[in-house]
Specification:
- The protein has 9 helices and 8 strands.
- By secondary structure, the protein is an alpha/beta fold.
- The chain has a single domain, classed as Alpha-Beta Barrel (TIM Barrel).
- The chain has an 8-stranded parallel beta sheet with strand order 1-2-3-4-5-6-7-8.
- The radius of gyration is 18 Å and the shape is globular.
- The N terminus and C terminus are likely disordered.
- Bound molecules: zinc ion.
- The site of zinc ion (ZN) has 5 residues, from loops.
Length: 285
Protein backbone atom coordinates (compact mmCIF):
# COMPACT_ATOMS: atom_id res chain seq x y z
CA UNK A 1 0.00 0.00 0.00
CA UNK A 2 1.54 3.27 -1.07
CA UNK A 3 1.89 6.35 1.06
CA UNK A 4 0.23 4.84 4.12
CA UNK A 5 2.42 6.78 6.50
CA UNK A 6 1.89 10.05 4.69
CA UNK A 7 -1.80 10.04 5.48
CA UNK A 8 -1.69 9.12 9.11
CA UNK A 9 -4.12 11.42 10.88
CA UNK A 10 -1.79 11.46 13.84
CA UNK A 11 0.19 13.93 11.76
CA UNK A 12 -2.78 16.24 11.33
CA UNK A 13 -0.81 19.41 11.83
CA UNK A 14 1.57 18.73 8.95
CA UNK A 15 0.83 18.79 5.25
CA UNK A 16 2.98 15.85 4.13
CA UNK A 17 1.93 15.93 0.47
CA UNK A 18 2.27 19.07 -1.63
CA UNK A 19 -1.19 20.58 -1.94
CA UNK A 20 -1.12 20.40 -5.68
CA UNK A 21 -0.21 16.71 -5.76
CA UNK A 22 -3.66 15.31 -5.19
CA UNK A 23 -7.12 16.53 -4.48
CA UNK A 24 -10.03 14.43 -3.33
CA UNK A 25 -13.73 15.19 -3.37
CA UNK A 26 -16.05 13.88 -0.68
CA UNK A 27 -19.17 13.48 -2.81
CA UNK A 28 -21.52 12.73 0.07
CA UNK A 29 -21.46 14.07 3.61
CA UNK A 30 -24.07 15.50 5.98
CA UNK A 31 -22.20 18.51 7.30
CA UNK A 32 -25.38 20.14 8.58
CA UNK A 33 -25.85 17.44 11.21
CA UNK A 34 -25.32 18.07 14.92
CA UNK A 35 -22.28 15.79 14.91
CA UNK A 36 -20.30 18.69 13.36
CA UNK A 37 -21.98 21.58 15.15
CA UNK A 38 -19.15 22.16 17.62
CA UNK A 39 -16.10 21.89 15.30
CA UNK A 40 -17.03 22.25 11.64
CA UNK A 41 -14.26 24.81 11.03
CA UNK A 42 -11.65 22.36 12.30
CA UNK A 43 -13.16 19.45 10.38
CA UNK A 44 -12.97 21.41 7.12
CA UNK A 45 -9.51 22.74 7.81
CA UNK A 46 -8.14 19.26 8.53
CA UNK A 47 -9.74 17.92 5.38
CA UNK A 48 -8.43 20.74 3.19
CA UNK A 49 -4.89 20.50 4.58
CA UNK A 50 -4.90 16.82 3.69
CA UNK A 51 -6.14 17.40 0.17
CA UNK A 52 -9.82 16.69 0.58
CA UNK A 53 -10.63 19.84 -1.34
CA UNK A 54 -14.36 19.75 -1.85
CA UNK A 55 -17.30 18.34 0.07
CA UNK A 56 -20.86 17.92 -1.15
CA UNK A 57 -23.24 18.41 1.77
CA UNK A 58 -26.35 16.42 0.99
CA UNK A 59 -29.87 17.39 2.02
CA UNK A 60 -32.31 14.87 3.46
CA UNK A 61 -35.31 17.11 4.17
CA UNK A 62 -36.28 20.76 3.77
CA UNK A 63 -34.45 21.87 6.89
CA UNK A 64 -31.18 20.10 6.06
CA UNK A 65 -31.37 21.25 2.43
CA UNK A 66 -31.61 24.86 3.62
CA UNK A 67 -28.76 24.27 6.05
CA UNK A 68 -26.61 22.72 3.32
CA UNK A 69 -27.13 25.82 1.18
CA UNK A 70 -26.23 28.07 4.12
CA UNK A 71 -23.02 26.12 4.64
CA UNK A 72 -22.18 26.30 0.94
CA UNK A 73 -22.61 30.08 1.08
CA UNK A 74 -20.30 30.30 4.07
CA UNK A 75 -17.54 27.85 3.11
CA UNK A 76 -15.93 27.81 -0.35
CA UNK A 77 -15.12 24.08 -0.01
CA UNK A 78 -18.77 23.11 0.37
CA UNK A 79 -21.39 22.58 -2.30
CA UNK A 80 -24.97 21.62 -1.50
CA UNK A 81 -27.74 19.37 -2.72
CA UNK A 82 -31.45 19.52 -1.92
CA UNK A 83 -33.87 16.63 -1.63
CA UNK A 84 -36.10 14.50 0.56
CA UNK A 85 -34.64 11.20 1.82
CA UNK A 86 -36.84 8.10 1.44
CA UNK A 87 -37.12 7.95 5.25
CA UNK A 88 -38.91 11.28 5.18
CA UNK A 89 -41.14 11.19 2.11
CA UNK A 90 -44.31 10.51 4.13
CA UNK A 91 -43.91 14.07 5.42
CA UNK A 92 -43.96 15.61 1.94
CA UNK A 93 -46.85 18.04 1.46
CA UNK A 94 -47.98 20.02 -1.60
CA UNK A 95 -45.55 22.74 -0.56
CA UNK A 96 -42.41 20.65 -0.08
CA UNK A 97 -41.12 20.14 -3.61
CA UNK A 98 -41.91 23.73 -4.69
CA UNK A 99 -39.87 24.93 -1.70
CA UNK A 100 -36.89 22.83 -2.82
CA UNK A 101 -37.31 23.95 -6.43
CA UNK A 102 -37.32 27.58 -5.32
CA UNK A 103 -34.25 27.01 -3.13
CA UNK A 104 -32.42 25.42 -6.06
CA UNK A 105 -33.39 28.18 -8.50
CA UNK A 106 -32.24 30.92 -6.14
CA UNK A 107 -28.90 29.26 -5.28
CA UNK A 108 -27.67 27.89 -8.56
CA UNK A 109 -24.04 28.64 -7.83
CA UNK A 110 -24.14 26.56 -4.65
CA UNK A 111 -26.47 23.68 -5.49
CA UNK A 112 -24.82 20.97 -7.55
CA UNK A 113 -27.25 18.07 -7.30
CA UNK A 114 -30.63 16.77 -6.23
CA UNK A 115 -30.86 14.24 -3.41
CA UNK A 116 -30.61 12.18 -1.60
CA UNK A 117 -33.65 10.42 -2.96
CA UNK A 118 -34.56 6.80 -3.50
CA UNK A 119 -35.77 3.74 -1.69
CA UNK A 120 -35.02 2.25 1.73
CA UNK A 121 -36.75 -1.06 2.34
CA UNK A 122 -34.74 -1.83 5.47
CA UNK A 123 -36.15 0.75 7.83
CA UNK A 124 -39.36 1.65 5.98
CA UNK A 125 -39.89 4.83 7.98
CA UNK A 126 -42.06 5.85 5.05
CA UNK A 127 -44.34 3.46 3.20
CA UNK A 128 -42.65 1.66 0.28
CA UNK A 129 -45.46 2.67 -2.05
CA UNK A 130 -45.02 6.33 -1.20
CA UNK A 131 -41.23 5.96 -1.46
CA UNK A 132 -41.60 4.79 -5.05
CA UNK A 133 -44.07 7.57 -5.89
CA UNK A 134 -41.90 10.32 -4.43
CA UNK A 135 -38.75 8.85 -5.95
CA UNK A 136 -40.40 9.26 -9.36
CA UNK A 137 -41.64 12.76 -8.51
CA UNK A 138 -38.23 13.88 -7.34
CA UNK A 139 -36.44 12.38 -10.34
CA UNK A 140 -38.73 14.49 -12.52
CA UNK A 141 -38.09 17.61 -10.48
CA UNK A 142 -34.31 17.06 -10.59
CA UNK A 143 -34.54 16.79 -14.36
CA UNK A 144 -36.58 20.00 -14.59
CA UNK A 145 -33.96 21.73 -12.47
CA UNK A 146 -31.15 20.34 -14.62
CA UNK A 147 -29.42 18.63 -11.69
CA UNK A 148 -27.70 15.25 -11.34
CA UNK A 149 -29.35 12.98 -8.77
CA UNK A 150 -27.92 11.37 -5.64
CA UNK A 151 -29.63 8.05 -5.06
CA UNK A 152 -30.07 6.12 -1.83
CA UNK A 153 -30.90 2.43 -2.29
CA UNK A 154 -31.05 -0.03 0.59
CA UNK A 155 -32.37 -3.51 -0.09
CA UNK A 156 -34.38 -2.10 -2.98
CA UNK A 157 -32.11 -2.75 -5.96
CA UNK A 158 -34.74 -4.15 -8.29
CA UNK A 159 -37.33 -1.42 -7.76
CA UNK A 160 -34.69 1.31 -7.82
CA UNK A 161 -33.41 0.04 -11.16
CA UNK A 162 -36.93 -0.20 -12.62
CA UNK A 163 -37.69 3.40 -11.66
CA UNK A 164 -34.30 4.65 -12.87
CA UNK A 165 -34.84 2.92 -16.19
CA UNK A 166 -38.20 4.58 -16.80
CA UNK A 167 -37.43 8.02 -15.39
CA UNK A 168 -35.80 11.02 -17.00
CA UNK A 169 -32.12 11.14 -16.19
CA UNK A 170 -30.59 13.71 -18.50
CA UNK A 171 -28.06 15.04 -16.02
CA UNK A 172 -26.66 11.80 -14.70
CA UNK A 173 -26.24 10.92 -11.09
CA UNK A 174 -24.73 8.77 -8.42
CA UNK A 175 -25.68 5.54 -6.75
CA UNK A 176 -24.41 6.67 -3.38
CA UNK A 177 -23.03 4.32 -0.72
CA UNK A 178 -23.20 1.47 -3.20
CA UNK A 179 -24.33 -1.80 -1.62
CA UNK A 180 -25.00 -4.17 -4.51
CA UNK A 181 -22.87 -6.76 -6.28
CA UNK A 182 -20.92 -6.42 -9.51
CA UNK A 183 -23.87 -7.54 -11.61
CA UNK A 184 -26.06 -4.78 -10.18
CA UNK A 185 -23.21 -2.31 -10.58
CA UNK A 186 -23.08 -3.07 -14.30
CA UNK A 187 -26.79 -2.36 -14.66
CA UNK A 188 -26.36 0.95 -12.84
CA UNK A 189 -23.44 1.87 -15.09
CA UNK A 190 -25.48 0.92 -18.16
CA UNK A 191 -28.02 3.50 -17.01
CA UNK A 192 -25.26 6.10 -17.17
CA UNK A 193 -24.88 6.59 -13.44
CA UNK A 194 -21.74 6.81 -11.35
CA UNK A 195 -21.06 4.54 -8.40
CA UNK A 196 -19.83 5.99 -5.14
CA UNK A 197 -17.75 3.84 -2.82
CA UNK A 198 -18.11 4.52 0.92
CA UNK A 199 -15.72 3.88 3.80
CA UNK A 200 -17.17 0.45 4.45
CA UNK A 201 -14.93 -0.79 1.61
CA UNK A 202 -12.12 -0.72 4.18
CA UNK A 203 -13.80 -3.39 6.32
CA UNK A 204 -12.24 -6.84 6.03
CA UNK A 205 -15.51 -8.61 5.27
CA UNK A 206 -16.64 -6.16 2.57
CA UNK A 207 -15.73 -8.53 -0.25
CA UNK A 208 -18.65 -7.69 -2.58
CA UNK A 209 -18.02 -3.96 -2.34
CA UNK A 210 -14.28 -4.49 -2.77
CA UNK A 211 -14.93 -6.42 -5.96
CA UNK A 212 -17.09 -3.58 -7.28
CA UNK A 213 -14.45 -1.00 -6.33
CA UNK A 214 -11.81 -3.07 -8.11
CA UNK A 215 -13.66 -3.81 -11.33
CA UNK A 216 -15.88 -0.89 -12.37
CA UNK A 217 -14.33 1.59 -14.82
CA UNK A 218 -12.36 4.30 -13.08
CA UNK A 219 -14.29 6.85 -15.12
CA UNK A 220 -17.49 5.87 -13.25
CA UNK A 221 -16.07 5.73 -9.75
CA UNK A 222 -16.56 8.30 -6.99
CA UNK A 223 -15.62 8.32 -3.31
CA UNK A 224 -17.61 9.48 -0.31
CA UNK A 225 -17.68 9.43 3.46
CA UNK A 226 -21.45 9.58 4.14
CA UNK A 227 -20.29 11.30 7.32
CA UNK A 228 -21.07 11.41 10.16
CA UNK A 229 -21.96 7.75 9.48
CA UNK A 230 -19.93 4.75 8.32
CA UNK A 231 -16.41 5.76 9.34
CA UNK A 232 -13.75 3.64 7.61
CA UNK A 233 -11.28 1.38 9.38
CA UNK A 234 -9.48 2.24 11.71
CA UNK A 235 -12.20 4.66 12.88
CA UNK A 236 -15.11 2.26 12.54
CA UNK A 237 -17.90 3.24 14.94
CA UNK A 238 -16.53 6.77 15.45
CA UNK A 239 -17.82 9.97 13.87
CA UNK A 240 -16.91 9.99 10.20
CA UNK A 241 -15.58 13.18 8.59
CA UNK A 242 -14.22 14.26 5.19
CA UNK A 243 -10.59 13.78 6.27
CA UNK A 244 -11.22 10.04 6.54
CA UNK A 245 -11.65 9.91 2.76
CA UNK A 246 -7.92 9.28 2.78
CA UNK A 247 -8.38 5.81 4.26
CA UNK A 248 -11.05 4.91 1.75
CA UNK A 249 -8.94 6.24 -1.12
CA UNK A 250 -5.92 4.28 0.07
CA UNK A 251 -7.85 1.03 0.14
CA UNK A 252 -9.50 1.60 -3.25
CA UNK A 253 -6.16 2.56 -4.84
CA UNK A 254 -4.65 -0.60 -3.34
CA UNK A 255 -7.49 -2.77 -4.68
CA UNK A 256 -6.96 -1.37 -8.16
CA UNK A 257 -3.19 -1.41 -7.88
CA UNK A 258 -2.86 2.24 -8.84
CA UNK A 259 -1.36 5.16 -6.95
CA UNK A 260 -3.55 7.25 -4.69
CA UNK A 261 -2.59 10.22 -6.88
CA UNK A 262 -4.03 8.53 -9.95
CA UNK A 263 -7.20 7.57 -8.10
CA UNK A 264 -7.58 11.09 -6.73
CA UNK A 265 -7.01 12.66 -10.14
CA UNK A 266 -9.61 10.53 -11.88
CA UNK A 267 -12.28 10.55 -9.16
CA UNK A 268 -11.98 14.31 -8.71
CA UNK A 269 -12.29 14.76 -12.44
CA UNK A 270 -15.43 12.59 -12.39
CA UNK A 271 -16.94 14.56 -9.53
CA UNK A 272 -15.92 17.86 -11.07
CA UNK A 273 -17.57 17.03 -14.37
CA UNK A 274 -20.76 15.65 -12.82
CA UNK A 275 -21.26 18.44 -10.29
CA UNK A 276 -19.65 21.27 -12.21
CA UNK A 277 -17.04 21.93 -9.53
CA UNK A 278 -14.51 24.38 -10.86
CA UNK A 279 -12.75 25.34 -7.69
CA UNK A 280 -11.01 22.12 -6.73
CA UNK A 281 -7.54 23.56 -6.64
CA UNK A 282 -8.34 26.77 -4.93
CA UNK A 283 -9.75 27.52 -1.50
CA UNK A 284 -11.96 30.08 -3.24
CA UNK A 285 -14.92 29.26 -5.45
ZN1 LIG B 1 -26.46 10.24 3.08
Amino acid sequence: MKHMEEFSVKKRQEAPVPLSAISLVDTHCHLDMNAYAHDLDVVLQNAFQHNVRAVVSVGIDVHSSRRAVELARRYPMISATVGIHPHDVDNITDKTLPILADLAERNKEHIVGYGEIGLDYVKQYSSPENQRRQFRNQLSLADELGLPVIIHDREAHEDALTILQEGPLHYGGIMHCFSGDLDFAKKILDRGLHISIPGTVTFKNATLLQEVARKIPLSSLLLETDGPFLAPHPYRGKRNEPLFMLYTAQVVAGLRDISIEELARQTSQNAGALFGLHHLNSPQK
